[in-house]
Amino acid sequence: MKLFSTLALSALLGLTAHGALAAEQTELKGCAAKKQAISEQIEQARAHGNSNQQAGLEKALSEVTANCTDSSLRKEREQKVLDARHEVNKRTKDLDKAMKRGDSEKINKRKDKLAESKKELQEALDDLEK
């Protein structure tokens, strides 16, 4: 009975530790998250035998390790959000002009470009939260 209790306690502690580790990995932010993402890509490249991609990713990882700070990364991501917002505003104006002219072909093209710009803005906002 004591052996069973010891085994059950060990298993429970192992699962708890694993859960805590998984929770810690999902909460990575900033440069730590960026390093983790690159490391995962390196492992995938290694698993698929893609040595060129692996070498490029290892170089990127060393540059991130040497140069990345959370404040510089945040500024970079904030700038991407600003640029994306500017692009959405520009595309909205272009669509408005096309709608005033009534050219259905240009309207459709402008709608597509606006949708693409909105998607890029959302991606930039998502990155900013990382």
Automatic annotation (TrEMBL):
Residues covered by region (Disordered): 67-130
Protein keywords: Signal
- Give me the stretches of Basic and acidic residues compositional bias: 72-122
Provide the leader sequence positions.
Answer: 1-22
Give the superkingdom in one word: Bacteria
Matching InterPro entries = DUF1090
Q: What is the name of the protein in this document?
A: Protein YqjC
Q: Quick one: which gene encodes this?
A: yqjC
